[in-house]
Write a structure and sequence with these properties.
29% of the residues lie in helices and 24% in strands. By secondary structure, it is an alpha+beta fold. α1 runs antiparallel to α2 (26-46) and α2 packs antiparallel against α3 (69-82).
Length: 347
Amino acid sequence: MARTRFMTLERHIIEGERKHPGATGELSALLSDLAIAAKVISLEVNKAGLVDILGFTGNQNVHGESVKKLDIFAHDVLIRAMDHGGHLCVMASEEEEDIIHIPPKHRLGKYVLLFDPLDGSSNIDANVSIGTIFSIYKRISPDGTPGILDDCLQPGLKIEAAGYIVYGSSTVLTYTTGHGHGVHVFTLDPSIGEFLLSHENIEIPEKGKIYSINEGNYKYWHPGLKKFIKYLQEEDKASSRPYSSRYIGSMVADVHRTLLYGGIFMYPADSRSPNGKLRLMYECAPTAFLIEEAGGRAIDGKRNILDIIPSSLHQRTPVFMGSKVDVDMVEHFLSHENHTNVEKEIF
């Protein structure tokens, strides 16, 4: 019988650090601190129906959306877990309008942390999967000084590490440090309180059979996108169509499925939201970094997500990400008037 390698997240991080003789251990410590925060949030999410944690706070976040109590709990846990380790110079959260400074009493480090504390929180009361998304950058301001806004406004290409935690039927943490080091998934074993390696070096299929999009917005889409969806729904055995439609409504969960099974996740711009809806810095750049490291693509319709130079912390963007062939196809449909020979032109 083949033996499964018993690998904890902590051990995996340390082994990765050993491959780089010049590593200081700061990035490893950051990832370990994030894992601790994930365990705390996971515990609270799992008992959300049993304690007075569900429901709205009565406040709105910087996007004008109602904030749920669990959002604030996750936001606070991440700040408390990360602000005193001495590895960060500044943080930014989807729930805060401005950057989050490290308290003066704590040592300042060379890294920057951006996070969406609880993606998909509108699904909390329905017990649908939700998650945390994070990305880590190196600061560009002088070492030893408080971090500034410019430290947070870097393109995705500058990400040092990114990942997400999905709180669902099980809690999984997916992360990558990029640069060919692979994408790895760890599943939390609640009996021992450890994240254990469950999927190593994930490679997203080059072409999938699933598309994920909110079709309730169909009437507001670009004509090329409408044609692309109809194309995916047509029956054609030679091109493995029709595709299946799967849409959870929590980006982190939809991206996780896309990473494992292939296909394409889309949240496009439309006539009501010409800049898209999802946030570049907190949702799209980190997940694009993961998808590309796994061999996929992530675009805003015209350019790679990781190439976008951000202009504000809460900038929104359209996004199409997943298997390379599927993203190539939607890019073609969005940029061409005549789609009759789409397969000949792409393949």
